[in-house]
Specification:
- It contains 11 helices and 11 strands.
- The chain is α/β, with parallel strands linked by helices and about 300 residues long.
- It has one domain: NAD(P)-binding Rossmann-like Domain (Rossmann fold, 3-Layer(aba) Sandwich).
- It has a 4-stranded parallel β-sheet with strand order 1-2-3-8, with helices on both faces. A 3-stranded mixed β-sheet has the order 9-6-11.
- It starts with a helix and ends in a 7-residue tail after the last helix.
- The mean pLDDT is about 95.
């Protein structure tokens, strides 16, 4: 989803894109990644690949999440260094911050408290990616940057019935309930947890913006030991409000029921976006607009549900 959005954002630009599908290169294979980057010699590498999923997937496959994400980022960042690439952009996640971090979460909250247990393995892998970038900058003078996006959604998302994130999971569930004329849809948790959502095309524009600004400007708002920058909208909604909005967009006429026996996850996740806005970028796609266009894409591409 993210990689495709970045390609869309760069299509028609002066940059020459070096692309490879999952079938062409296994990012978990260090020798394959090193060979690929050594041959292509890119000027910039954007690390958008990751093993991602919602609460269920993180709980069910913790070993897979920490192992695959550690390998992907380590192979790409170290491979870029070996290929003489001075510029890397690593994409992390807002789950790097402590479960009970003060809201909105600033970049300085990193490593100041315990992580949310349901996605701790994934979060640790992403923190390692940030520290990899910082370490190569300190030891080798590279310009490796990190962006921490909030919860993402948009065209190309994973709509798997159990392993997807909250927006695609709810969108599919409510859509199928409408198709089946169901009387109710059950939603995990109490609905009280609050989340911030960023359209993937907004993230792509942020990636392009950050990679095009001068290093001196980036360094003004970061430091060698705290080099990442948050990316979000600066606003959040409750899961209940999100579900009600999706009901309106999809046109479902049944009821919403909440299963309080299932975990809510972190009570609230809202990013402080002061730093990226000070660098001249701000999200432009409103949540209702983004959800409506994503639902249109979903209906046109029902084969992308990834059963």
């Amino acid at each position: 989803m993210v990689g495709s959005a970045i390609v869309r954002a760069l299509t028609g630009s002066e940059e020459q894109l070096i692309l490879a599908s999952r079938g062409e290169i296994d990012l978990i294979n260090q020798s394959a990644v090193t060979e690929f980057l050594g041959k292509k010699r890119p000027d910039t590498v954007i690390v958008a690949a990751a093993r991602v999923g919602g609460i269920h997937a993180n709980n069910a496959y913790p070993a897979r999440f920490i192992y695959e994400n550690l390998m992907i980022e380590a192979n790409l960042i170290h491979g870029a260094h070996l290929a003489g690439c001075d510029r890397v952009l690593f994409l992390g996640s807002s789950c790097i911050y402590p479960k009970l971090a003060e809201q909105p979460m600033t970049e300085e909250a990193l490593l100041t408290g315990s992580l949310e247990s349901t996605n701790e393995p994934y979060a640790i892998a992403k923190i390692a990616g940030i520290k990899l970038c910082e370490s190569y900058n300190r030891q080798y003078g590279r310009d490796y940057r990190s962006l921490m996006p909030t919860n993402l959604y948009g065209p190309g998302d994973n709509f798997h019935a159990t392993d997807s994130h909250v927006i695609p999971a709810l969108m599919r569930r409510i859509h199928e309930a409408k198709e089946n004329s169901d009387k109710a849809v059950t939603i995990w948790g109490t609905g009280s947890a609050r989340r911030e959502f960023l359209h993937v095309d907004d993230l792509a524009s942020a990636c392009v913006h950050i990679m095009r600004i001068e290093k001196s400007k980036y360094d003004e708002v970061t430091s060698p030991m705290l080099s990442h920058i948050n990316v979000g909208t600066g606003t959040d909604v409750s899961i209940r409000e999100l579900a009600e909005l999706l009901v309106q967009i999809i046109g479902f006429r049944g009821e919403l029921e909440y299963d309080a026996s299932k975990p809510d996850g972190t009570p609230r996740k809202l990013l402080d976006v002061t730093k990226i806005e000070s660098l001249g970028w701000k999200a432009t796609i409103a949540l209702e607009e983004g959800l409506a266009s994503t639902y249109e894409w979903f209906c046109r591409n029902e084969g992308e549900r990834r059963e």
